[in-house]
Amino acid sequence: MKRIIITIDGYSSCGKSTLAKQVAKELNYVFVDSGAMYRAITLYFFRNNIDLENKEAIIKAIGEIDLSFAYNEANGTSDMIMNGENVEVAIREMAISERVSLVAAIEEVRTFTVAEQQKNTINKGIVMDGRDIGTVVFPEAELKIFLTANPEIRVERRYLQLIKTNPLITKEEIKVNLESRDYIDTHREISPLRKADDAIVIDNSFMNREEQFALVLKLASERMN
Ligand code: DC
Question: Fewer CB within 10 Å: C terminus or N terminus of the chain?
């Protein structure tokens, strides 16, 4: 069977990472959560008070950041490591969600991140989720998915996820954050979120995990054979 690259792009909180992880596990492929990389950079900028208007400070800060993923045996996924620190929990906090789209719109940040994402891909066998993976990072990918779901359902899903660690979170707060991120992600100048011409759209509003997984696996095996 041929090893392929699978890209899963789409709006925030559509379940991209959950699906990508499941598919990667089944195929024994590497899973890369590209959003985690933008979140880690945002965390670094936030902790170090980097002014997002100051190009010089941004370039210097990027030079100080080392990103990698570490396999987490407890849950079978990979955690984001920034400069040797496991930041998997810290990057999911609201303070980072509120800032990440602005950081991800910066040209120098995208150049660095895309180069990191394109490393070590010679053997393929990758499932990567994000916003520009099928359009910019791997335009040659054999299978491109564009995942979408209706906004109320996305808020509800995100709420159920975040309430576990933040009992004070409100649906309104999440709705505002998702709307603002979607707006910035689709309207930024550099590689905005858009469906690649050859991507397959999956609206998972009324699909369960197993249905999505079965569909993507079927599409993948057609391309692997
Ligand atoms: O997938 P996520 O919600 O963790 O991503 C966080 C932010 O990072 C998202 O609002 C937009 C940005 N992002 C991006 O610009 N390009 C990617 N390939 C992945 C994420």
Answer: C
